[in-house]
Design brief:
CATH architecture of one domain: Alpha-Beta Barrel
Radius of gyration: 26 Å
Number of strands: 38
Shape: globular
Largest sheet: 6 strands, parallel
Strand content: 25-35%
């Protein structure tokens, strides 16, 4: 017979098994019913990263009265700040943001101190293009991911950083930065997570600004010291612009040219990496069978793309110089090769009258745009990757939908063929350089010319915006490069020293430097504020044709291409 004790033991065991089975079943049901967690959108995050990396400093505004918000937005943007964060600390914050975003559509506005998903939704409706939170708020993060809105959650501990990384986030707000140990703490916390970028805020001032910006893991900083409350209250536009310019000068002094590198590509079929400090060649990339026409860096700085008259484009590893992909499919010389903003695609243009889109992971051809009657000089993506601009052998420029490849707009105004095209940092403007000796800034939405820049004595081969789109640099057949105000068209500097005509010029990613490329076989790096030539790079035996600055660095990194 079975004892009572044995019976109780059996019943208890059965109950335990039942409980375990029930819990497992319940978990399975919940797993089936739970919606998949929304993930951040890589293209959306890349767009935010591009803006922050370009801006480097973000003014954080806590404004209670929307009365002068519009004028404040214009003053801060004209002072050089392209990204602005509005703190949601008052009942009128939505109105403030709405007024500022409407008054200065060229700026990239964000909303900070967001505590709930409802606040995030209200901020986006008011014009916010990214959300920042003081802590790792899963409700806000999930809402932003589900609606494809970039979000920067606040973190202060390794556990929070690890959780944010697990959620797929790539940009984190170290907050409050100084209270939590400043730069030393940030270095320690971020060390195990080299794939993440940090946006310190809270206690950042002009006294510790350089210490933060010199950290390679810091993509930008946020602060309010450059827009003090008394200046905001006074509404003094010129004072606000002066304070902004002063702050940006400090930011641009971070890092010295001696720490920078330059890559050059030449008619001798090679690409080389140089030290600006010593002028020594650090690495040589070998693989093309003919002239290299263009070179560009991937958004993460890991790859270089080259375009050649051997009818191919190639992808190379920056660290080793190894060619990992050859894009074969054009029937004529390839003139340009540029990455999409998310780095997933490569856009090439060719003498064969086609533009092609390639998958950068495999090198396979994704799409071909072949609606051209002449050879194509340039094709570039807009910053959000939604549009493509092309310049062919005539005065008009076409804008295309990047997904459907339908033409959405034709921009006119030049009298002769256009050699180069470039979007402004926010995609609202297009800069073109023409054989008619002028550069034009055109409103992409309306198609109207906003500014015409003239002053060279020969063709303009290239024109490029500064990172904040407040300046333009032009390269001409008259042997000079010039910088100009992109607001007024006023000339700023002439860069004189090359012995033959220039093929291109471009600003560094922080705006401190300009690189020029010339038929004289050299490239030169200049200070953009004084026009001083920092380095002459003279080693190739053919024309230097193109230049592209490497991203993901607190220093200016430059790559150059050449042709014959």
């Amino acid at each position: 017979m079975t004892s009572a004790s044995d019976s109780y033991k059996a019943l208890a065991a059965a109950a335990a098994v039942g409980a375990i089975s029930g819990a497992a079943a319940a978990a399975a049901v919940l797993a089936l019913k739970s919606p998949s967690r929304p993930r951040p959108c890589p293209a959306v995050d890349a767009h935010l990263e591009q803006h922050l990396r370009s801006a480097r400093i973000v003014p954080v505004l806590a404004i209670e009265d929307a009365g002068n918000a519009a004028e404040l937005a214009r003053a801060i943007y004209d002072g050089g700040f392209s990204v602005i964060e509005v703190a949601f600390r008052s009942a009128d914050a939505k109105d403030v943001l709405r007024e500022m975003a409407a008054a200065e559509p060229r700026a990239y506005f964000g909303a900070g101190t967001i505590l709930t998903a409802d606040q995030a939704a209200a901020a986006v409706r008011s014009g916010a293009r990214f959300i920042a939170t003081p802590g790792l708020n899963s409700e806000v993060v999930l809402w932003c991911c589900a609606n494809k809105i970039p979000v920067i959650p606040g973190v202060a501990t390794p556990s929070e950083v690890q959780e944010a990384s697990r959620m797929g986030l790539s940009i984190l707000k170290f907050f409050p930065a100084e209270v939590n140990g400043g730069t030393e703490a940030l270095k320690a916390i971020s060390a195990p997570f080299p794939h993440l970028n940090f946006y310190p805020s809270g206690g950042v001032t002009e006294k510790n600004l350089q210490a933060y910006l010199s950290l390679k893991q810091v993509i930008a900083v946020g602060g309010s010291w450059m827009v003090p409350q008394d200046a905001i209250s006074s509404g003094d536009r010129e004072l606000l612009k002066t304070l902004a310019h002063s702050t940006l000068q400090v930011a641009r002094s971070v890092g010295q040219a001696s720490n920078e590198k330059v890559a050059t590509a030449s008619l001798d079929h090679t690409v080389r990496l140089w030290s600006i400090e010593t002028g020594d060649c650090l690495m040589t990339f070998i693989g093309h069978e003919d002239q290299v026409m263009c070179v560009s860096f991937s958004p993460d700085g890991e790859l270089i793309a080259t375009a050649s008259t051997d009818k191919t484009a190639k992808l190379w590893l920056c660290q080793t110089g190894q060619c990992i992909v050859s894009c074969v499919g054009h029937s004529g010389p390839v003139y340009t090769a540029f990455f999409s903003p998310d780095g997933c695609n490569l856009l090439t243009s060719s003498h064969d009258r086609t533009v092609k889109i390639w998958d950068t992971a495999s090198g396979s051809l994704s799409a071909t745009l072949s609606k051209f009657e002449r050879s194509i000089h340039s094709a570039v993506y807009s910053p959000d990757g939604q549009l493509i601009a092309t310049a062919i052998d005539d005065p008009e420029v076409s804008i295309w939908n990047a997904k459907t490849l339908d033409r959405v707009k034709v921009l006119s105004g030049h009298e002769m063929k256009v050699f180069s095209v470039q979007f402004s940092h926010d995609g609202s403007l297009l800069l073109t350089a023409s054989m008619d000796q002028s550069a034009r800034i055109t409103d992409v939405r309306t198609g109207k010319t906003k500014l015409t820049i003239t002053g060279h004595d020969d063709w303009l081969r290239c024109a490029a915006f500064s990172p904040d789109s407040l300046k333009v640099v032009t390269a001409s057949g008259d042997g000079t490069a010039k910088t100009w105000s992109a607001v007024t068209g006023r000339p700023l500097l002439s860069l004189v020293g090359h012995e033959d005509w220039l093929r291109m010029a471009a600003f560094s990613s922080d705006g401190r430097c300009v690189v020029t490329a010339s038929k004289d076989g050299s490239a030169r790096v200049w200070r953009s504020d004084t026009g001083e030539c920092l380095r002459k790079l003279d080693g190739h035996k053919a024309w230097v044709r193109w230049a592209a600055f490497a991203p993901n660095s607190s220093h200016c990194r430059i790559s150059l291409g050449s042709f014959g």
